[in-house]
Amino acid sequence: MQVTRSKLAYGTCSRQLGAIKLAYAFPALILVFSAVPVFSKKSLPAIISFFGILLVLVIWTRLNQKKELEAEEALATAAANKAHIRHSYAPAQAVTLVSEQLPSELLNTVLPVWQNHVLTVKSQTENAVIQLINSFGSLIQQFDEAGFSSKASGENSDKHQATINLINLCQQDLEPVIAHLEQMIDSKGELLDAIKTLAESVADLKDMAHSVGVIAAQTNLLAINASIEAARAGAHGRGFAVVAGEVRRLSLISGETGKTIGERVTQINEVVKSTLKTAQKANEQDRKVMQQSGKVVKEVLGHVQSLGDAAEEMRSRGEVIRNDVENLLVTLQYQDRVSQILDVLDRDIGKLLKTMAEQIPMPSTAEWMADLETYYTMHDQHSSHVQARGTPSQSASKDDEITFF
Q1: Total Cβ atoms within 10 A of residue 318
Q2: How many CB atoms lie within 10 A of CB 65?
Q3: In sequence order, which residues have a C-beta less than 8 Å from that of residue 112 and are 6 or more positions away?
Q4: Could you state, in order of their start, the residue ranges of all structural domains in the chain?
Q5: Which residues lie closer than 8 Å to 325 by C-beta, 6 or more apart?
Q6: 166-180 pLDDT, tens per residue?
Q7: Mind listing the pLDDT tens digit for each residue in 21-30?
Q8: Using an 8 Å Cβ cutoff, are 214 and 186 in contact?
Q9: Given a cut of 70, is residue 215 above it in pLDDT?
Q10: Is there a contact between 315 and 160 (Cβ–Cβ < 8 Å)?
Q11: Which of 54, 75, 161, 277 is the most buried (most CB within 10 A)?
């Protein structure tokens, strides 16, 4: 309608401008015909008439110039409106022409193919998503069997705490063993010190035996001197000689006894020294064994602690992975959204195909779009509908009537 009006306005302005330009020709003819008598007779009335006609023509020309300018402006405005309307309605006209030129045979052939493609996409998407859901469901089941279930987090925590308590109990039980080993080594050290003291005492006994031998030798020498003096005294020294003989005999016995004691003390000293050496060697070996045992026990406890920490970290990472898999399962619900969109599209294509096949009168665009909108169930569908039409949708504003996924 607007294009037709624009064409009419443009044609009217063009005709008016042509009429104004044609009007310039009539005064020129009048001027030519009026000039012929003037130049042929050269009379005063003819000259006055000629200049009067010339003045009228000048006034006429001025008026026509003003009308010509107005007509040109109107023609330019009409041309601009025509170009604007033509530019605005070019896509709509193209769509109208294409829709008018599309044969019904083409639509009857293409629409079933589109419908089959939509159903194929829907079927393949559903199958692929179902396989993914089954695979991820199997992963979650394996996580649950491995003890990474979020429902069993309290039980897993109790098990982990029990493991920690067991490790602490082992550590508490092993630490006294190490302490007892250290005490045993210390007691052996005390025994070793006692043996050292005994060895020193035996050495003192040897010195004492030597001293006894020296005293016996001195006593024997004294007894010999006493016998010599008793012999010089004669009869008066016989009693003293007997005493000197007994003293000498005792000194000899004492010397033999001291010698025997010295020999025994020497033997005991050798035994003590050998025992001391063996005890020292055994003490060093026991201390090394104890140190090695303590080191091994501490390493074992450290490994057990590391194992407990690794198990806790593995449990934490397993829970994180399980949560990620659950999030993936939630994300895979996009298939339901796609399926709903494809269902609406399949229904609309089927409706159009049925309308054309049964030659049912086509409804208006507004009625068709309104009917299509009634089958939307998601906000995305309403948004796409609004973007395509460029007008607000009443159903899109009713969030409480839309099912979100």
Answers
A1: 16
A2: 12
A3: 353
A4: 2-98, 104-147+333-401, 153-325
A5: 136, 139, 140, 143
A6: 777 777 777 777 777
A7: 555 555 555 5
A8: no
A9: yes
A10: yes
A11: 75
